[in-house]
Design brief:
The protein is α+β, with helices and mostly antiparallel strands. It contains 5 helices and 5 strands, in the order βββααβααβα. The strands form 2 sheets. The protein has a 3-stranded antiparallel sheet, covered by helices on one side. The longest helix is centred in the N-terminal third of the chain and has 14 residues, at 41-54. It is globular and about 45 Å long. The model has no long low-confidence stretch (mean pLDDT 91).
Length: 157
């Protein structure tokens, strides 16, 4: 197991990997520790993909996920696997995702699952929006808008 950090717009991404893949990616305010870089081949692959994505040089994050290390309900895992399929520069509404899971009317459960997403960016919860607006985001709507802008999308607050 290893963890490392990546700088992004005055925030730092905390990434945790095993030999099977990433299992946690979170973001906090503040600068990353430059000494906390990846050391394993798997970690370097994750770092490289995220760095390229954040600099506009990659539109698909497909590094491995270590699902065995991810704590989640069956519904959450099913939801997150659906979210993985939302393409770069595309969005889906909470309601559309609920319907695609066979749970029409479960838009709030989808929102809750987005909020608990353990793999920020790799599972693109920032691409899930409300029917009439941007919707929420655990890191705030400004960060959600920045991530969507990286993908060529724009929303008004």
């Amino acid at each position: 197991m290893e963890s490392f950090e990546i700088n992004f717009l005055g925030h730092h991404l905390n990434v945790q990997c095993s030999s099977k893949g990433a299992f946690a990616i979170s973001m906090e305010k503040g600068k990353a520790d430059p000494k906390k870089g990846p050391s394993s081949a798997k970690g370097k692959e994750v770092f490289t993909q995220i760095d390229k994505y954040l600099h506009g040089a990659l539109d698909k994050l497909d590094f491995d996920i270590d699902w065995s290390a991810v704590q989640a309900t069956p519904f959450q895992k099913k939801l997150w696997k659906k979210m993985e399929k939302i393409g770069f520069g595309k969005t889906k509404t909470y309601g559309q995702l609920a319907e695609s899971l066979g749970k029409p009317g479960a838009a709030r459960a989808v929102g809750s699952g987005c909020n608990r997403n353990p793999l920020l960016l790799r599972i693109p919860c920032h691409r899930v929006v409300a029917q009439n607006d941007l919707g929420g985001f655990a890191l705030g709507t400004d960060m959600k808008m920045r991530l969507l802008e990286l993908e060529g999308l724009s929303f008004e607050k």
